[in-house]
Amino acid sequence: MARKKVVTEERVEHFEVWAEKYRPKRLSEVINQKHVVERLASFLKTKELPHLLFAGPPGTGKTTCALIIAHELYGDAWRMNTLELNASDARGIDVIRGQVKDFARVRALGEVPYKLIILDEADALTADAQQALRRTMEMFAEVTRFILIANYSTRIIEPIQSRCAVFRFRALSDEDVEKFIERIAEGEGLKLSKEAVKAIVTLSEGDLRKTANILQACAAYTKHITEDVVYDVMMQARPKEVEEMLTYALKGDFARARDILQHLLLREGLSGADVIKEIHRQIFKLDIPEEERVRLVEKCGEYEFRIDMGANELIQLEALLAQFLLVGRKK
Hints:
This protein is of the alpha/beta class and 331 residues long. The protein folds into 3 domains: 33-168, P-loop containing nucleotide triphosphate hydrolases (Rossmann fold), CATH 3.40.50; 174-234, Helicase, Ruva Protein, domain 3 (Orthogonal Bundle), CATH 1.10.8; 239-330, Zinc Finger, Delta Prime, domain 3, CATH 1.20.272.10. It has helices at residues 18-21, 34-46, 62-74, 78-81, 93-104, 127-139, 158-161, 174-188, 194-204, 208-219, 227-234, 239-250, 254-267, 272-283, 290-308, 313-330, and strands at 51-55, 82-86, 115-120, 144-150, 164-168, 191-192, 224-225.
């Protein structure tokens, strides 16, 4: 008796990183950087591109604009004509003298007469590497253009800055981040409460890349995203709990404030740095004199530094709570 041949098909699902999936593909899609987009569009029309320096906070569209330029200039051949490096990984002079220089000296393929080198986090380059980069930019200016991306333009040496057209990217507003959240929610069929949107805006700190990652992490848990889901998934301190803790400390009830702190650190497993960050946010909402507010902000910086240096998180945060108790007694 002939045996039947059973064929089973495995379904392979393709998972995509949302930060890349929802990255703008055209300059017109870049959020709230109109002053940058208009100037870049004029360069692309003539294809007469100078060296560029993009500076500004993370997640505001710097790398996105660089990649859009590469696609617009070279089309499907953009990978052959573009070298993309992260300078924080390859920050030494050997990389500039080797990989960058070797790519820069070769002529481009196609109609555009120059190749493109994108150096992300260029402010992480050492001083010697930046000097070598300056010489490379001078020697191969006819056949290569550079796009340097940095969070802090002041860390780029002046000789390089003077050879670049500088574009400063603005920090994104809460409304800008909310628009991006709506775009992803619509594309992925997510439902978010108003409190969840506000929590994501707070945690992302204006970084759209971080916004997309938070949403994707929450969506892996549930399609109906609430404030509790956001804080549970991201392992961040809930504002209400921190506010309650500080209120008890200001009222002189140190024992109850300490219980909440221990719950956050020991039971919920939050890091001391994250708790201090939320304490810092809550300080500006407290009904205390401005002079005391300034002093508490200074104390937040002091205790955060101690924790970064390896001090015990619980002890340091209890000491910070004691500062709030002293303010409450004065009030």
